[in-house]
Design the sequence.
């Protein structure tokens, strides 16, 4: 059972990584990041359930990570909205003005 | 009276230092006149203290046992290792007390004279600050109890001389002269320094075997008989005495400072400085430091007679060489500079002829140093008074000043008689002792040479005297000359008094070394020919340089090329500039400069350029694209994980 769950998590993580490296839309990047975080949370919970059932550390960490991800999305989306107001797009490849 | 006088001897040296700091840092920016006053007053105090010290030191009641060497004050300065310590201290012995008196007297009179002479010059306060610095350095040099302190103050004296020669720093010739003086003496000091290192290194080795209670660089150690014996057993690889080499190197430093041939070239040019400075530094005090150093180390020098022979030879040659040149120079200060060279040569050869068994030359040399300081300072200050009035250094632009400047005239005449060696002026007594040394030691070459130089001295000194004071005014300026202010005349009068009286001091009772002196008083075998030579020189000069002045021209034409060579100072300067420009600059300095510019600087530039190239190449991977960075990051993480995995597997 653990094996299938870890494979699911690996699939989610890899999909997220692929998304980060290829999507041009910033919103798409966020979704990809969320997928990777969720893959990690699944790992926490699964390993907690199958390797140390008497403890709840992994579950606590999972809830903690979910709260963190929610906060992160909040800040990130706020930045994105501001950027969109200025540039009228959310293309990540045009966001290189710090280089110049 | 008593102990506290000798115990406070350090004050004499410290007073000028304190006033140098206070005047230079605080008073000079506020008020230049006040600065000059304070500087002069502090030297005056030092003068009074040294007179007090000398009267106590030489007074009859303490002379019996106190006239030995005292070190009343000392403080540890550098500690290299156990057994090698260098102290700062004050050493009192007959010659250092005598020098304290000479230096403070001349320095005070020169300070006082300068109050009026330098009036209205820009840099008035700066001038007095430098004079204070010089006085401090010279006093520190005089009282040094070890050769390291001597060297330290030796260089300080060189620096203050450099600063004062270049006092008129807007005048290119003064700047060149100050550089020349500094470089030439510095070059000589290189030898001195190597000499000190040799003495110090082997002295430290010897100090392990012989207990003397003093440090390896102390004069007390170097002049210790056991130590000297140990030194004499050391030899170089080719069998020559090590001590002789070290002493020759030390003498090289002394010759540089005392302007002995061939290191004399800086002294005539040093006359670019203000005239009172020439009187103080380049006539009365600093230039005798070389003679003083040889005298200070005389017990060491006397163990190596060959070195003393060299010193005597160089001294006599310089004496004659400079006297011949002095006869042809037209700049009054340059004539005085060459006469200083000549008199320093006298002192040197007198020291060179002395031995511990027959130490008359030592006393005579110190006596001549003592009397020479006063009459030569008087000559320079008198010349300064003339230059102040006429605004020219050229004796041919003077003339007829006898009536217009009566006091300067009388004092200058007294100084001329003193340096010529006419009884009862001081030069007669000291020169007599020097010639007596040569005669009694059966050094007939030195005796005849000394006599001839005495005649030449009388001749050229009388020449500038007659040309400047007698006859008619030869230029507009000299016909309108006026006597200087009393501030300038008072030191002249005082020095004239000293020139008249110092000869009668029973010097041989105070300053002596080695065996007791055989002969006291005036020796007629020496005094009569000496005086005759002086009178001959004076009268020849009087015949040539009063009246129509046709004779000198005829003589100079008759001498032809020889006269031209003398006039050009035997082309020594030209030889130096040929060696430096054509040989050293071309074959040493130029290749070194090329190496520096192309290889050293090129290497640095190449490193910089390579770094810049690399970094501009590396900027290409900074695209500013988040996803590129991320790709690199992922790639790196995967590689690192694979590597770690591989290592982990390999280990298991």
Sequence:
């Amino acid at each position: 059972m653990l094996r299938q769950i870890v494979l699911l998590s690996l699939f989610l993580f890899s999909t997220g990584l692929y998304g980060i490296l290829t999507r041009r839309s910033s919103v798409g990047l966020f979704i990809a990041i969320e997928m990777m975080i969720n893959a990690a949370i699944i790992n926490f919970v699964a390993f907690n359930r199958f390797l140390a059932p008497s403890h709840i550390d992994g579950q606590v960490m999972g809830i903690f990570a979910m709260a963190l991800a929610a906060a992160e999305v909040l800040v990130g989306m706020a930045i994105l909205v501001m950027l969109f107001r200025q540039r009228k797009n959310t293309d990540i490849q045009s966001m290189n003005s710090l280089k110049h | 009276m008593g102990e506290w006088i000798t115990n406070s001897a350090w004050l004499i040296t410290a007073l000028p230092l304190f006033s140098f700091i206070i005047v230079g840092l605080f008073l000079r920016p506020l008020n230049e006149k006040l600065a000059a006053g304070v500087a002069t007053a502090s030297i005056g105090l030092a003068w009074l203290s040294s007179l007090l010290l000398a009267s106590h030191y030489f007074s009859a009641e303490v002379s019996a046992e106190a006239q030995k060497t005292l070190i009343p004050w000392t403080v540890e300065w550098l500690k290299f290792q156990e057994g090698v310590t260098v102290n700062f201290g004050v050493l009192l012995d007959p010659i250092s007390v005598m020098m304290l008196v000479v230096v403070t007297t001349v320095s005070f009179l020169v300070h006082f004279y300068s109050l009026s002479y330098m009036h209205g010059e820009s840099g008035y306060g700066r001038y007095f600050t430098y004079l204070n610095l010089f006085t401090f350095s010279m006093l520190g040099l005089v009282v040094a109890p070890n050769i390291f302190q001597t060297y330290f103050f030796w260089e300080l004296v060189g620096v203050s001389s450099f600063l004062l020669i270049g006092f008129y720093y807007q005048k290119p010739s003064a700047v060149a002269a100050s550089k020349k003086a500094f470089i030439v003496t510095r070059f000589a000091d290189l030898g001195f320094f190597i000499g000190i290192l040799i003495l110090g290194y082997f002295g430290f080795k010897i100090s392990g075997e012989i207990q003397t209670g003093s440090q390896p660089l102390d004069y007390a150690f170097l002049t210790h008989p056991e130590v000297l014996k140990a030194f004499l057993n050391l030899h170089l690889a080719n069998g020559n005495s090590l001590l002789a080499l070290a002493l020759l190197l030390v003498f090289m430093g002394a010759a540089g400072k005392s302007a002995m041939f061939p290191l004399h070239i800086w002294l005539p040019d040093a006359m670019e400085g203000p005239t009172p400075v020439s009187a103080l530094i380049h006539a009365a005090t600093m230039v005798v430091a070389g003679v003083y150093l040889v005298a200070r180390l005389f017990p060491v020098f006397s163990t190596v007679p060959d070195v003393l022979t060299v010193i005597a030879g160089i001294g006599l040659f310089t004496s004659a060489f400079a006297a011949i040149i002095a006869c042809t120079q037209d700049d009054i200060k340059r004539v005085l500079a060459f006469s200083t060279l000549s008199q320093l040569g006298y002192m040197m050869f007198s020291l060179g002829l002395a031995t511990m068994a027959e130490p008359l030359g030592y006393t005579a040399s110190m006596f001549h140093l003592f009397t020479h300081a006063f009459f030569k300072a008087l000559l320079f200050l008198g010349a300064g008074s003339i230059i102040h009035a006429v605004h020219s250094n050229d004796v041919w632009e003077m003339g007829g000043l006898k009536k217009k400047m009566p006091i300067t005239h009388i004092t200058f005449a007294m100084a001329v008689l003193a340096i010529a060696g006419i009884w009862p002026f001081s030069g007669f007594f000291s020169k007599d002792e020097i010639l007596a040394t040569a005669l009694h030691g059966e050094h007939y070459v030195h005796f005849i040479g000394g006599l001839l130089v005495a005649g030449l001295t009388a001749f050229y000194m009388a020449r500038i005297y007659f040309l400047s004071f007698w006859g008619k005014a030869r230029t507009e300026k000299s016909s309108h000359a006026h006597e200087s202010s009393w501030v300038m005349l008072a030191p002249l009068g005082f020095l004239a008094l000293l020139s008249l009286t110092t000869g009668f001091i029973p010097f041989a009772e105070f300053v002596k070394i080695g065996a007791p002196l055989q002969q006291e008083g005036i020796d007629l075998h020496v005094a009569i020919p000496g005086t005759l030579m002086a009178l001959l020189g004076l009268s020849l000069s009087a015949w040539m340089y009063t009246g129509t002045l046709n004779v000198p021209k005829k003589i100079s034409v008759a001498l032809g090329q020889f006269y031209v060579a003398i006039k050009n100072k035997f082309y020594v300067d030209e030889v130096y500039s040929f060696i430096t420009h054509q040989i050293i600059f071309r074959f040493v300095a130029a290749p070194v400069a090329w190496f520096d510019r192309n290889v050293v600087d090129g290497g640095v530039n190449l490193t910089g350029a390579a770094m810049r190239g690399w970094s501009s190449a590396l900027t290409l991977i900074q695209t500013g694209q988040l996803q590129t960075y991320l790709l690199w990051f992922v790639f790196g993480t995967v590689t690192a994980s694979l590597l770690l995995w591989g290592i982990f597997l390999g280990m298991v």
Summary: Chain A has a mean pLDDT of 90. Chain A touches chain B through twelve residues (CB under 8 Å). The domain at 2-93 of chain A is CATH 1.10.287.3510 (Helix Hairpins).
